[in-house]
Write a structure and sequence with these properties.
37% helix; single chain; 310 residues; 11 helices
Length: 310
């Protein structure tokens, strides 16, 4: 089968992670990168032996590109998605997918109309540890799930956090699509953002949500850029599921390295989420499997966050 030829719109930090994943994924080739910051595009393109350009439109119109990863700031996502779909490209859109749920729904309708795949960058879900957990839950191996805890605790220097939005918008999206996969849509949601501890940034550095279900299940979702977990049983990202017949836990700390990149420790399991997501995107384009998370999920999560307000 022919290789899936991918172009990038955006050449920032997340593009580097996606590019490294593509290099390790059979049947997927990176063939072009565009970014208004031409030097940034050229630098990443040179590393991967492809063409880097400043003009995204020229990349979108290339006949030798089958799919585009939209890796720009969120404000540009929706417009770029529509332009890519009009050009006949499949799209993977980094989260947050768009600035509001209505914009996401319009992308869904457009993708259906032109017969192209459009999925959100919900990468955590594709880690084998997560897919195994879902398989066990759906097979009833843990009985009835009554409690779900998802925690993210990775301190961000303020200059790094400046590249992102707040924790609610950037991190709890991951928690939310994982909770949807485990428990489905909640019957009620509470949540909030902590007063920021940054010196200069106005964004929240801690946020939380509690999802309640008429069945009696509860999901507790928490994220922080403010502090690391340095306790005796540390978590940088962890999931814990408690069921009536069993329990399960996932912790990125299961594998740590001294090469931490922007963080204090390296997290190979985090980096591998992009590898497994890339393979899943390839298989979904080929019609061999369905994505584990959809733009409808992204829209539902965006609506929940909107309803929580500021």
């Amino acid at each position: 089968m022919n290789s899936l030829r991918v172009g990038f719109l955006g050449a920032g930090t997340v593009a580097r992670l996606h590019a490294a994943a593509i290099e390790q994924t059979p049947g997927v080739d990176l063939v072009g990168i565009a970014d208004p910051n031409w030097s940034q595009a050229a630098e990443l393109a040179a590393v991967h032996g492809v063409m880097g350009v400043a003009d995204g439109e020229s990349l979108i119109e290339r006949a030798d590109i089958d799919a585009i990863f939209i890796l720009t700031p969120t404000a540009a996502h929706a417009d770029l998605a529509h332009r890519c779909l009009d050009a006949g490209k499949h799209v993977l859109i980094e989260k947050p997918v768009a600035e509001n749920p209505e914009a996401i729904k319009k992308i869904v309708a457009h993708a259906e109309r032109v017969g192209r795949l459009a999925i959100p960058g919900h990468n955590y879900l594709y880690l084998p540890e997560c897919t195994r957990l879902l398989r066990l839950i759906r097979a009833g191996k843990l009985g009835t799930v009554r409690a779900l805890f998802i925690t993210y605790a990775i301190a961000h220097p303020e200059d790094l956090a400046a590249h992102y939005g707040g924790v609610m918008d950037e991190i709890l999206i991951h928690h939310a699509y994982l909770a949807l996969a485990v428990l489905g849509a909640p019957d009620s949601v509470q949540g909030g953002r902590a007063a920021t501890g940054w010196d200069n940034l106005a964004t929240d550095d801690q946020a939380w949500m509690t999802w309640e279900y008429e069945s009696g299940a509860i999901a507790q979702l928490f994220g922080t850029f403010a502090v690391d977990d340095l306790s005796s049983d540390p978590v940088n990202f962890g999931i814990k599921v408690l069921g009536t017949d069993g329990s399960a836990a996932i912790n990125w700390r299961a594998v740590s390295t001294s090469d931490g990149g922007p963080f204090r420790v390296g997290m190979p399991l985090y980096e591998e989420t992009y590898l497994h997501e890339c393979a899943a995107f390839r298989d979904a384009v080929r019609g061999e499997s369905a994505p584990l998370s959809t733009l409808d999920d992204a829209a539902r999560i965006a609506r929940m966050i909107d309803e929580l307000g500021t």
